[in-house]
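Record 1 of the preview.
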Amino acid sequence: MRNWRHLPLAACVALGAGAAVLGYGLLHQATTDLLRHEARIDAEVWSAQLSKNTSELPALARGSAPTAATLDLLFKSRQAGGVTAFRIYNTSGKLMLRYGDGAGTTANGDTVATLDPGLAASIAAKKSSATLRRGSGDQATSYASSNVAIRDGGTIVGWLVADVDQTRRQAAYNALTFNLALLFGTLLLVGPFLGYRYSTRQKYLVERQIETMSQRDQMTGLPNKASFLKLVDRQLLQTEGGTTQCALIVCELTDAHAIDQSFGLQAAERAILVTATRLTEIKPERTEIAALERARFGLFMHGVSDAMAVLALAKELTSKLGYALEWQGEQIGMQVHAGIGLSSSDGKDAATLLRSAELALRSAQEQGTPGYGFFNPEIAQDARRRVAVQKAVADATANHSFRLDFQPVYAIRTGELNGFEALIRLHDPELGAISPAEFIPIAEQSGLINRIGAWCLEEACRIAAQWPAHLVVSVNLSPAQFYTGSLIADVRQALDQNQFPSYRLEVEITEGTLLKDSELVLQQLGVLREMGLAVALDDFGTGYSSLSYLWKFPFSKLKIDRSFVAALDEAQSARGILRSIIKLGHGLGLSVTAEGIENTRQFETLRELGCDLAQGFLLDRPARIADLAGIILRNFAKGLTGRTDATTERTRFPSTGTHNG
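->
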């Protein structure tokens, strides 16, 4: 098996030897081409220089004898540039002058036909060229010949040919070729050994680097979640069965997202880095820290004997890590929460212990102060319930398995049926009936509320289209529906698809809808009013800003919160509060609805106070679709007054509606 491991190395040696031979041939060819190229340049330069520095060339080409100055120039050019010979031909290709080659200045009648074929061809074609030639006899071993046209006033009257000695240059190039080939061959033969060792070393370094990177958080340089969990598992195994316990604290920079939105990504990353630095400085001995997520960190404490010491550390973390950060001249507030998990009670392995600490962290974030706390088993139960409800909501959204029930709304004075409020219901095969108070917030946080709201609008309009034309249907809107940008389109589609008149559709919003971005909400409500819809302000009186919004937007209706109706049985002041709300609504031109009426006394009081509409268990419970026809027909046969007078006071029931029941 070991011999197989060395096969790549042997192959590299063989390949290197073959490449050395091939490289020598290529290098020799390359130096020959370079020599030819430089020889041509030299010849062309000397021909051009001679043509430039003497004005007698046209006369010489016509057969005139050279002057002493021209001969001197030819002599100096030969000495300076290693020119073997100069020759001048006329346009007919007859040699008019030869200087050099031991012939002095002669003209023996040779023609260009005696030149190199390539040179002769270029002269015949009236083009300048150069070629590398081999000498014979006493001529230079290697020389370059070039021809340059001799012009007189722009007309070619002859040709100047220069032969430049290249013997020394060729010898130097040959020596260079040999030395380079020798060096190249040596490197190629030794290279595989060096390359093999280098590649092995590099592979080792890269593997170490990859291993290090896989265990570190790239932003903070702290150990990452995977390596942290491995460390925690090892420590838990070592302390298993002992008298001491371990603790895991998860702390998070809660404001990281807000800092990103307000000050930018760089500020958020700076806040995270500062938090990591502070954490490193605060951590006590025998404590390991790690970066779990972008702004979440973990601390693992070994051998903890006192749980209160862990709590004290969590308190210190939330305090010191929460110091303000200076950024571009501004002070950025930083809020940190922490959750604690103990190995003795909250998890025997790293994953379970971490999950417990994270649940404790979430609980601390939801409660606000003090911002830290231990894991509570009830938190895990709530988390499991939340996950199960979230799955039920997702399944119901995908399968359209929600249900709408409808609670009648009556005119309190005449007893006439005014319409119905649509109330969404969810029944899961495993969880059973789930209250809207539980699944609506989960739907909002998971981003599904827009699809659910659009379904409610369409379904309510579809069902109400089968009722008598004077009955209206009311649909509750979630605040999140106003922020998606599709609410108006969803309403239009529900109306158009069912050919449902807009005046028969009423939408209800709570005061909380107006708190986040009131201008955005009011603009959309204005569009809905222009479309002909009625808009009711639900749960009126429970918030702090109702009055400030009533004059900003012309609502159609106020719905008195059920808590004020229930208070009629307990507090004398409730009657006065209800009277004020009803008068306020009437003073603004709004109708007033009381919800949650459960006994005759409440009903009679509200009728005496002038309330317009009423709904509650006393009058009718939320009904299934199949029961609506009976309610509508019964209303035609018997008025509300007669029915309520004959109704004995009923037992109160908890609300089962989204906002009312």
